[in-house]
Design brief:
With about 600 residues, the protein is an alpha/beta fold. The chain has 24 helices and 12 strands. The strands form 3 sheets. Strands 6-9-10-3-11-12 form a 6-stranded mixed sheet, with helices on both faces. A 4-stranded antiparallel sheet has the order 2-1-4-5, covered by helices on one side. It is elongated, with a radius of gyration of 35 Å.
């Protein structure tokens, strides 16, 4: 589901469900959470004991009781001891809360990241990288204080309950007056909380759009500069940034308006206690008791405000948790990994039987596709752009699920195989080489983490890559920059061939793998390609004549349908689309010229 700024669409999960999700993370660290709550409860008990000692002394003075210096010393000593214990408990509380928050947010972020990685390719097709970054980083950061807020909620509830017990013990009238504020404060909190939930959802969505715009601009900076798009990009970014600013102002308003309202309510409570308390004093209540109520007012009112504030703050946190849940808790987005059959001994036999596929239900991409590949066969898929060639490769890798028909490996259904085991035996080499930031060795060992340097140099020799790697400052330990920017297109492609060879797969998929390589470089690695494909089943999506001519079978696709099938000579005799394509652009790739270059090398 695409991200939208419509707040209503963000409300996919109830507060109860989101609270259960959050509580599941708290329970992982129940011991730490219990320590926080116990420290807070003990702290509350000590905080309420001190005013009672003070009240006892004042009542004694008011009644004219002879208070010896020894009694006062005990009272003062008790007050000091309670204060020191309270400070010690607060220190434990703050340290424990910091650990609890960090662990909860860390767990949520790791689980969300793991869930994103487990999602299908269709999930990533529908989402932008900036949006995912915003959810994994910014939304989880928004949850940072949630562990503390939850602990304070329970502690505030305990503080209010204990204070009300004291209130009712000393004066039922004043206690009932104070309880009038409970529904008022909670009603304000619920109203503001719902509004904050909506504006936070919009603000987070806008923030994700800003992240995505920035990431998109940085990834295409050369195109931007080549067409002098800096001004236009700045203007579009400014529009998004202004929308984010407006959403942030609305969110800030609902956050900060809460405190002026509660400040007014606090003064109202003070005046009511003074008014009712004065009447009670006239009826015989000790003045010390009225002073006690004035002292305990904050022990009652501010925990009540804390609970209300926690509620509306949790609405903002729930908006973030909901955005995270939408990318990590939807089973329809996860890859189908129900197969249990191991693919360790694949021979490379593949069969498509009346396969139909569409990225969405309206536009069919593959229609009634049927063909068989024998173990060790070299197959070439040819056709104009959009014919469905790369889609066939994606289905073999199980990036997407077919709509109808079946695909089998060694006469067993594709989906019966364990997903990781299957992919371990299929290697994909595409035109767009993906290299990660790290050393060249790191990028190669992605295919085989236990490969030794000798094994790595062996495959580099086979793909003609040793020469250029030895010329690098630190050969295998040379750092590859982001997206391999410090390597040429040909060098990146040779590394991808070496990586594929290092994994020793049974099936090779070449998705226009030599399209970005010049004829000179291709001539150098053609033998390496032959070595890579030797005794392996291969499916090549090709525009290069050298790849096509060596294929055992050529499958010609047009508008998602197979229109021709055979080897080069057979298809040339048939005429039709293949012959037209050959004459249009394949024939211009002179094999004689390639051989001439290869001989000179």
């Amino acid at each position: 589901m695409a991200v939208t700024t419509d707040a209503k669409s963000e409300r996919e999960f109830s507060d109860r469900y989101l609270l259960s999700v959050f509580w599941s993370y708290v329970k992982r660290h129940r011991g730490l959470f219990n320590l926080v709550v116990i420290a807070l409860i003990l702290n509350v008990s000590l905080a309420l004991t001190s005013p009672l000692i003070f009240n006892y002394v004042l009542e004694g003075i008011e009644e004219g009781t002879d208070l010896s210096s020894k009694f006062l010393i005990y009272a003062i000593a008790g007050y000091v001891v309670f204060s020191i214990l309270s400070w010690f408990l607060r220190a434990i509380q703050f340290m424990s809360v910091a650990k609890l928050n960090a662990r909860i947010v860390g767990d949520i972020r790791v689980d969300a990241y793991s869930s994103v990685l487990d999602n299908s390719i269709s999930f990533f097709d529908k989402r932008k990288s900036g949006e995912l970054t915003s959810r994994l980083i910014n939304d989880t950061k928004e949850l940072h204080e949630s562990g503390r807020e939850l602990a304070w909620f329970f502690t505030s509830l305990f503080r209010i309950s204990l204070t009300l017990v004291i209130f009712f013990y000393f004066s039922i009238t004043i206690a009932l007056t104070a309880t009038l504020f409970l529904p008022i404060i909670l009603a304000i909190a619920i109203f503001l909380g719902k509004y904050e939930r909506r504006v936070t959802a919009i603000w987070r969505a806008k923030f994700g759009e800003v992240n995505n715009r920035f990431a998109e601009t940085m990834s295409k900076i050369q195109i931007s500069k080549a067409f002098n798009r800096e001004k236009e990009n700045l203007e579009r970014f400014g529009v998004l940034n202004e929308a984010t600013y407006k959403a942030s102002v609305k969110r800030g308003f609902v956050i900060f308006i809460f405190w002026p309202i509660t400040d007014v309510m606090q003064h109202a409570l003070l005046l009511l206690i003074l008014y009712v308390g004065t009447r009670e004093v006239e009826n015989g209540m000790p003045i010390a008791t009225l002073i006690l109520f004035l002292i305990l007012k904050n022990q009652f009112y501010w925990p009540l405000v804390t609970m209300a504030n926690t509620y509306h703050r949790f609405q903002g946190a729930f908006a973030s948790l909901e955005r995270i849940s939408r990318i990590s808790r939807d089973p329809d987005l996860a890859e189908n990994d129900k197969g249990t059959l191991l693919a360790e001994n694949l021979t490379g036999s593949i069969k498509f039987d009346r396969v139909n596929f569409a990225y969405n239900t309206k536009i069919p991409i593959l229609q009634d596709i049927s063909f068989e590949i024998n173990p060790g066969d070299r197959i070439a898929l040819v056709g104009h752009t959009g014919a469905g060639k790369s889609t066939v490769a994606s289905l073999l890798m199980r990036f997407y699920e077919i709509n109808d028909g079946s695909i089998t490996f060694d006469n067993k259904n594709l989906y019966d195989y364990d997903l990781k085991s299957l992919r371990k035996n299929i290697s994909l080499v595409s035109q767009r080489v993906l290299l990660f930031k790290g050393t060249i060795r790191d990028n190669l060992q992605i295919a085989n983490p236990i490969a030794t340097d000798n094994e790595i140099w062996d495959v580099l020799d086979k793909v003609q890559a040793r020469e250029f790697i030895e010329m690098l400052p630190n050969d295998l330990d040379t750092i590859v920059e982001e997206k391999g920017k410090n390597l040429s297109a040909g060098q990146r492609q040779m590394i991808s061939f070496a990586r594929a060879l290092l994994s020793d797969p049974r099936i090779i998929i070449l998705d226009e793998a030599t399209a970005s390589v010049d004829l000179y470089t291709e001539s150098k690695i053609q033998d390496a390609i032959d070595t890579l494909l030797d005794s392996r089943t291969s499916i090549s999506i090709a525009h290069r004549l050298t790849t096509i001519l060596k294929s055992d079978k050529i499958i010609v696709l047009e508008h998602g349908k197979i229109v021709q099938m055979g080897n080069h000579e057979e298809l040339m005799k048939q005429g039709g689309l293949y012959e037209n394509m050959y004459k249009l652009y394949l024939e211009t790739q002179s094999a004689k010229y390639l051989n001439k270059i290869k001989t000179s090398v």
